[in-house]
Each structure stands twice: as structure tokens, then as C-alpha cells.
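Predict structure. Chain length: 254.
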Amino acid sequence: MTDTSPVRGTLYLWNDRWMLLGHLPANRAHRHVSASLLLGLDGAFELEVEGECRQTRAAVVAPDVAQALNPGQTTMLVAQLDPDSDAWRRLAGKLAGQVSMDLPLAEDLARMLASSDDCLTLSNNLAQFLATTDAPPLPLDPRIADICHHLREALPEKLDAAALAERAGVSTSRLTHLFREQTGVRLRRFLLYLKITRAMARWQPGMTLSTLAAEAGFYDQPHLVRTARDMFDALPSAYIGAGNFHICRCSETH
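Prediction complete.
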């Protein structure tokens, strides 16, 4: 059966998370650096995780795990949560080492999420959903939390692992191991993710990919394209080009 649902909705961007709300296109297997929280607000959807397909209404997928989504005609909320974010750490506690699991989604909460029309409302409604998680948050080493914050603020062109290790007070090898252990992703991949998130935030209609690559700190246009397809199976323009998706840049107070 051909999916005739229009591909439209809203992309909400914060510093440590982003969310898509609306009718989304299907995608092929890819690996997000962020954790994925996928909610079918008016029905089920098909989710593939590491080659295994299932129908679900709500699910979470850990960072850097191969996944593909086929939403069909379902209205979706897809929240991408940075591996150091409080929201993901809470869900990680519930996963308890699994790469993915289904979650309960109450109908009244699904309706509230579907009707969210601004950053603050969506953030508050998602917080209500996360509050239903009964597992304690997975703790994050303060040194890794500091490194994540520093990279997000500085967004260096190149990764200086030795300087970051000195900042954390550990050896370079210890830092790379600890970072992967705590977040589920490699340091270099985390920095690339921060850059591609910046690219999404700075993209404007009519902007060339070469300009966008320079704005976001990539070496060149092919580097941006490879990274986007690897992490999202799409370029930023696929979501917010041609007027299909409205973009909301949200402040941290929202």
C-alpha cells in the first residue's frame, strides 16, 4: 500500500536535543549519535533495530545503534536526545543495557503531545511522559559531562583528545575509553554530531551545502553530506526544505 500522507511538521531544536513532530518520511538504516525516542501519537509504526523489525506505539533506541523507521500514516514525535542529556539518562536507566525497548504511552498523553504547538508546551508534555519512567537515571561521570558541555560550547574544528584528557585529568586512552563507556559513542563521532546539529539549526532556504558546511565547521561539502547521511539518512534540506517542515529554535528556558 502506498503511503500518501503529506510529509510535513515541525522541527524543534534545543542545545542538547531536537524533536520532529508530524508526518515523517520513512528512512533506511542509520546510526544516530543521540538516543531516539519514537512515539506514534495516533497509531503504531514499524521500527527496525539492528536488522530486527517490529510494530510498536512507543520505543527508545540507545545511541549509535542501527535503526530505520517506517511511520506509514502515523503522526510521529521523534525526539533525539543527546547522550549526556538528563532525558536520555533517565531512559537509559530503564533500558538497563538493552539497545532498545518498547514503552507504554497513555492515550491522553499522546493527544497532549500531538497538540503541542510551541517549544515550551512540547518540552513540558515530553517531561510528563518521561516522568512515567520508574527507573533511576543512569549516572554520568562529571568529567564526561564537563567534556560534553565544553565541546558543545566551543565546537572546535578538530578534536584535540590530548587537551580534553588534560582537562579531565586522565590519560588520552583513558578518556576515549571512559567517554565511549559513559555515552555509548566515540569522542570524534560526538563532535561530528554537534556539528551536524549546528548545520540543522543554521540551515535556511536557498543556502548552498558548501556554505552550510563552512558555517557548521565541516572540512567541505562532501564531509557534511557523508556525515548527514550516516547519522540521519538525509540532508538537512530533506526535513526543512521546500516548506515541508517549520523550524523552531528553542531557548534553554523552553
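Summary: The longest strand covers residues 17-23.
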